[in-house]
């Protein structure tokens, strides 16, 4: 077996700080579990701009296309606000997503028992919650043509076009059904087939893929507005939710916040299967570079650590090892360890970024 390869792109702000904690886990896995990764590290975002004058060097892009998985910290910061749009740090991340053609964005919303008092919802609604939102990431209204602002008579008109092809819907539907088979075997597809043509096609194609290839998975359809309501009323009714780019943008943020802090939330963006049968993949915490706390040892590394756990599960076929990492996170939270963002009314044991990483390794 060849050694699995991982490209680490720490990026800007708290990115390098939280990534250092993932490194500790990787080192531990090598030393204690005999699991070696071929790890390389490179620059992205503002850090890449400072060195190369571009937020993503071509060599880094090429490397990202070769490896089994990319793990990214965060990009951006106030220092780069003045830059031209074409070289802004965020463009580095967008280029990675686009050229790797990462069409399925996975956002788990999982509630850790120790933090369930953290949610805006009642304990019984969120305790034990574990759902996965899959958002189509490369098409839909953010990309459709025609688009723009132009003059019609004597007023301006702003135009965006929601456009989906059958194959774009089919491939993300397959991602959802595959995911469901590894989880609770249930998919809910959300659109607005009552008012949108693309919604009608979405519903039809998801149903067709289901009937032809995944009849064993339980499938339901819901209008996205009703879905938003149900997500806050009783989120545990869902397992995997699959939806388009726009609705997914809203619903995944909504679902994420059912469970608490931004510092806890991982994500994965997956593309087409590679030669080894596993998808092209980029893993990253949902949070940004958090310039307000960067360099102070305050950042919560858990979102990045859980993103690495997703890589273990979805890119390296190491589901048991992923569970091991997730259990360790649960353990330290149950022990009361809290970075500042997790410090609620009930208090806890304050820890720094590296204190949290060390405790997770120990657990
Ligand atoms: P971006 O545009 O890059 O998404 P943003 O300003 O929307 O950035 P973040 O950089 O994620 O969002 O920061 C939002 C708030 O959440 C900030 O106050 C930040 O300090 C806090 N925050 C984000 N990530 C973490 C973390 N890992 N640990 C602690 N606090 C965090
Ligand atoms: Mg943001």
UniProtKB/TrEMBL annotation:
UniProt-recorded name of the protein: 3-isopropylmalate dehydrogenase
Binding site for substrate: 97, 107, 135, 225
Keyword set includes Nucleus: no
SMART domains: Iso_dh
A GO term, aspect molecular function: 3-isopropylmalate dehydrogenase activity
HAMAP family: LeuB_type1
Cofactor list: Mn(2+); Mg(2+)
